[in-house]
Structure formats: C-alpha cells, structure tokens
Amino acid sequence: MEEYRQGVILTCVALYMVMCIGVGLWAMRRTKSAGDFFVAGRGLGPIVVSLAVFSSTLSGFGFVGGPGLVYATGLSSIWMAVCSALGYATGFYLVSKRIRMIAEVRDTMSLPDVVYARYGSNAARLLTAGTILMGVLGYLATQILAMALVLQSILSASAMFADISLLACVVLSSAVLIFYCVTGGIIASVYTDLVQGIVMIISGALVVITAASVFDGGFAEVSNILLQNDGEDIMPFGTLGTMASLSWFFLFGLGLAGQPHVATKMMMNRKLSDNRIIMPMTVLGYVVAAMLWISVGVVMRALVLGDVALPLGAPDEAAPVFLSTYAHPLLAGIVFAGLFAAIMSTADGFLNIGAAAIIHDIPKAIRGRSLERELFWARTATVGLSVLSAFIALGSDKLVGLLGAFGWGMFAAALVPVVLIGLNWKQASARAAIVAITASLIVNLYMQLAGVSVPYGISGGFLAMLTSLLLFIGLSLAEKPKPLPKDIDRIMDL
Fold first, then answer.
1. What pLDDT, in 10s, does the model give residues 229-240?
2. pTM of the model
C-alpha cells in the first residue's frame, strides 16, 4: 500500500472536504434563526457537547502547533497540554452550571450576554465583545495557517502540485471554511465535532503506538537520543526553562475557563444534569487525543538529532512530515482528515462567537439592541472575519503554537477574572470587571505590538492575566457590594 500513500491521503482529505460541504448544506436547513446559528437552540445532547468542547480546544493548535512546539523547544509545551485537562475540571465545576442557568433565565446567546446579566453593565459587555473579536482574529489565523500548512504538505508531495504555494493553500482552505461556516453556523460545527472527536480519540491513540514503533527501542531509545544530543529538551521544563513552563501552567490551567468558544458550548446542552456526563467525557477525550501532541514532537526531534531524518524547514512541519513518512497510509489519511475536521469545526466556533460580537453584542452594548436580520448579518460577518484572519495568517511569522498561545492568553487574561471569579463571588463589581478587561488588553496588545520580551521566557499572556486578576480582586474588595438582580442572586447561591 506504500506506493499509494499520497493517493490514499489525498482521497481521505478530499472526501472530508466533500463531507464539509454536505454538512453545511444539511445544517443550513436547520438554521432558521440567530439562536440556531449561535447556540444551536440549546438542545444538544451530552455526547455531542463533550466531543465539541474538547475537540474545539485541541484543533490545529494541538495537532499542528503542539508537535511543532515540542520539536522546537522540547517538553516545555507539555505544561500547556497537561494543564488544559485540569482546566476542564475547573471550568465545569465553577462555571458551566451558572452559565447554563443564566442562559435559560435570560435567554442569552453569547458570553457577553452572560457578562451583562451578571454585572448589569453595557461597558463590560462591550469590552468582553471587543476582547473576543481581537482574540478570535489571532486564533482564527492559527487555524487557517495550520490548515494551509497541512494542505501544502500533502499537495506538494504529489507531482501535480509539487510547487503549490502557501497562498494558494490559504485561499483553497479558506474557501471551504467560509462555505461550511456561512451555511451551517454552530450546528454544522457541533455535529462535525461528533464524528471528528471520535476520530481524534482513536487516531490519537494509534499515532502514539506508531510513534513508539519508529525506533526499535521505542520511547526509551527516543529519550536516550535526546539526552545524548541535547539533554535539556527532555527535562521536565524543556529548553524554555522553569519560569516559562510554569507561566504556561497557570495560563492554561486557569485560562480554559475564560475561553469563549468553550463557555459558549456550555450553554448548548439540553439539561443541566448533562454536565455530570459531559465533564468526564471531555477530559478523557482530550487526554487521549493530546498524547499525539507530545509523542509526535519528541519522535521528530529525536529523528533529526539522531541524523535519521533531515531537519525540518519549519517546526510546524513536524506533524505533517511524521504522518506522511512514518504512519500507515490509511492511518495518515484518516488523521489528516480528522485534523482538517478539528481545524474546521474550531474555526467555525470562533467565527461564530466573532460574528456574534459584531452583530449582536457590540450593537446591544452601544444602542441597546442587536442588528435587524441577525442571521443575514451573522453570515456576512463570518465572511469578513475569515478573509481578515487569512491575511493575518499570511502576514504572521510566528509558529502556529505561539500564535495560538497569544489568542488563548488574550481570552484568559480578560475573561478569567470576569467569568471564573465573577460567577462565584457576589462582591465582584462591574467597575472591577471593566478595569480588569481594559488592563489585560493594554498589556497584551502592548507586548505583542511592541515585541516586548519578558525575562526568563515568561508568557506575556500570563503577566496580563496576573495583572487583571489582581486589579479585579483589589477593586472589588475596595467597593461596597451592590445587590444583584433576584434571578442572578439565586443562581449565585446554588
């Protein structure tokens, strides 16, 4: 079957692209209102929600960026992967119940709606929507860049498309993404997640087995090669060091509760009691699929350092090259298709919350009501966000993993205090929420645009989150507590 490797991979990817078009057309018939487009009518079962939550977190960030980070920095990024699993538990125990109840009693369609219901402040709603919009652009660029890099890796291995450019791959992948997202909205995303999540769990486990068989001595031989050539990368904190790794520990451990695409999916389940099933299934699925992140990265690094393979042109090529070279053709094809599914559904989720910010949340915060013909303008905003993100992806010189970490940090720094703490602490005030979000945006944007390098490799997102947390707690303690609306007060007591 080896001689048909590229044909098998291309067939699997092509079939997936066709499936995306079909799912989009099917979902379009079920998308009759803005509520269907944004939160799937809050009628999804626990299996669909759990697979949607974990797969939208992993996506191109984990499947492409994760192995790339391990290849480039050793085990430093393991602190992202492992701590995200802990973040699910934090989010579900402290956030999911109250978000779902607020969505029920206030008929909310987005996280800024929840923030407004909790704080009664249009300024907080506006800042939350603005944060989501800026973070979405960074994260969407991550997904589009990951999708284009994988597509280029697959196509360039065939004689017909040997010289295909990254620009052509961005245009092609973005075109399918736009069609899929514009027609189906969040319904297309979550039902693709159902298939994709199962594929990611199974293929993730199979890829780990494949990675272990590349060297005769398995992972023990991989460790020996890394120790002999550059022992620091196989140490617990990798090449970036202790402070950088621990900053990622807190950013990803606490930060998951502030990710709006995760919080939005917490509003979609039919019953509150479904969370008892959703949480453990989400963690289990994520842990199995995330093993691909570490195993592929360390094996590719060992292959290069051990002079078994040529150095990669870029770290983000680690996963595509491994699958194209070492995995069974059918497994490689299925994983590539699953990877596109992960990227596509995650991008759809981000486009969804970004479009909601533009046509629902920002107009409500400014003029007290959302736009007329919300469904039409949601689809229009989806196209605009896709095109803008594609330009950002083409203009970025960052690794997929680092670009994704920036988007994650943008969300975490602004929304962890407001959502994670604010939904569990009655004394949290609207003024504190406004100041915390504003400060986090200033710190994040300044460090990104000015190219500030923090000593010891500490994540800029972590510093922004620490700043916003201290301001949020300090200002809330300094103010006299204000009474909450009766329905929100009762929810906070539960």
1. 877 888 889 888
2. 0.84
